[in-house]
Amino acid sequence: MKFVDEFRDAELGRALAGEILSLVEPGRHYKLMEVCGGHTHSIYKYGIDDLLPANVELVHGPGCPVCVIPMGRVDDGIAIAHREGVIFTCFGDMMRVPGSAGSLLDAKAAGADIRMVYSPLDALRIAKQNPDREVVFFAIGFETTAPSTALTLKRARAEKLTNFSVMCSHVTIVPPLRALLESPDLRLDGFIGPGHVSTVVGARPFEFIPADYGRPVVIAGFEPLDILQAVEMILRQLAEDRCEVENQYKRVVPYEGNLRALEVMAEVFELRPHFEWRGLGFISHSGLKLSAEYADLDAEARFSVPGVRVADPKACQCGEVLKGVIKPWECKVFGTACTPERPIGTCMVSSEGACAAYYNFGRFARERQVV
Amino acid sequence: MSAGPSQSCGSEHCITCGDDGVPMTVVCVDLDRGLALCTDEDGTRSTVETALVAPVEPGDILLVHAGTALTRILYPAGVPA
User: Fold this and answer.
1) Does residue A371 sit within a domain?
2) Chain B contact for A119 (CB, 8 A cutoff)
3) Residues 290-349 of A with CB under 8 A from B
4) Domain range for residue A138?
5) Distance between CA atoms of A25 and A358, rounded to whole angstroms?
6) Does the N-terminal peptide bond of residue B55 adopt cis geometry, omega within 30 degrees of 0?
7) B-side interface with A, Cβ within 8 Å?
8) Tens digits of residue pLDDT in A155-211
9) Residue B72 CB partners (closer than 8 Å, separation 6+)
10) Cβ within 8 Å, pair B52-A3
11) Disruptive mutation site among B8, B65, B70 for chain A (greatest number of A CBs within 10 Å)
12) A40 touches chain B (CB under 8 A)
């Protein structure tokens, strides 16, 4: 397939692995964070870490959209879903994220009308088809997904739909990165930047990382050669004593992002003063809510929700995994009490979550090493 | 809107939750509603919101996420479209 086969070429992969090997200094340990869960998924799926020298370590970052949703938000969603006359809609993986008393999937089994959608526009269509029901869309995701929610809200307003509302849990990528860089227990040498978030925000928002923290950033695609080339570009910056934002994913990411998407988001959303991230705690100006102009379509205002903060299960170490402090297999419940079939923590829910990605692909390689 | 195999939010991999983008080719355009009928590599057709990349025309390749086209995909120099 065009844009896929070219980026999985084994010969080019070997050449890039050789380049990477030539760039590392023996005796120096390199820690590079891939911000996006999509990269984590590709790294384990294609065994990319096996192609890297032993002293180049990939650390998994917080960029998995469902992994960062705290339990209290799931409980709020379930509370709305149980309201009489409500059709509650959300994306697939969100259905399985555990709240304090079960997931949305459990609530559906208990009788709530909860429906999986692929797009917010699907939720809008359900609202048009069910004028006597209240249809709520549980909006999650980074800047990649937020424009789609924003356009849907604009359509709802234009079509004067009154039975549609959004429970907005969209988040932004830069504040958690800054929080991670301020974290004293994490030393990183560079970042593989999020490819699809960057189609919307562009490369410019990441310029603070080299400017303020002296770490290189390379925005990368999701095929094996994309990620290998991003690693090579970061290591080359380090070897040449350069520190800047580079764009490996030029075929998709304009440096300025998508200005129309940013305008639509600015019209429909505004920043929350604080938003709670699973495992990372409250981060200032990191979450989006509906702007005053669209407040009447805000499900949290339309329905009363518990709004209670729920602590993560004590056994769960998603926070340390999301910060890259520990590897998935170092969590006490990884692969035993917590599996993709019965997740305790969010990192085990989505296949982009570091734990699920490692469970599905990486553990086999590790088991081979142990033997 | 239909959701085909490469766009499903099924049990293995929810592409929307995963921040994935799907390359899709424009088949025809509904200018009045700002939508386009697009097809993915498997031939599955979906209606896509095109407000963020308009104007589009048949044959354009778009990166689609959550039913919305986020950007056009540009072929690297020297690679035939």
Assistant:
1) no
2) yes
3) none
4) 71-173+257-302
5) 28
6) yes
7) 1, 3, 7-14, 16-21, 23, 41, 47, 49, 51-53, 61, 63, 65-68, 70-71, 73-76, 79
8) 999 999 999 999 999 999 999 999 889 888 778 999 999 999 999 999 999 999 999
9) B53, B56, B60, B61, B62, B63
10) no
11) B70
12) no
Q: Is A354 a member of any domain?
A: yes
Q: Where are the alpha helices (DSSP H) in chain A?
A: 10-23, 37-45, 71-81, 104-109, 120-129, 146-158, 174-182, 195-201, 208-213, 224-239, 259-268, 299-302, 318-322, 354-357, 363-370
Higher pLDDT pick, A138 / B41 = A138
pTM, to two decimals: 0.88
- CA distance between the termini of chain B: 27
Residues A282 and A166 in one domain: yes
- Is A308 within a domain? no
Q: Which residue has the tokens 């989006």?
A: A288
Structure token pair of residue A83: 């309201």
Residues of chain A neighbouring B74 (CB-CB closer than 8 A): 250-252
- Residue B52: which of A92, A118, A147 has the nearest Cβ? A147
The answer as to whether B60 is a domain residue is yes
The CATH number of the domain holding residue B17 is: 2.30.30.140
This complex has an ipTM of: 0.83
Name the domain count of chain A.
Answer: 3
Residues on chain A touching B68 (C-beta within 8 angstroms): 119, 121, 147-148, 151
* A329 and A232 within one domain: no
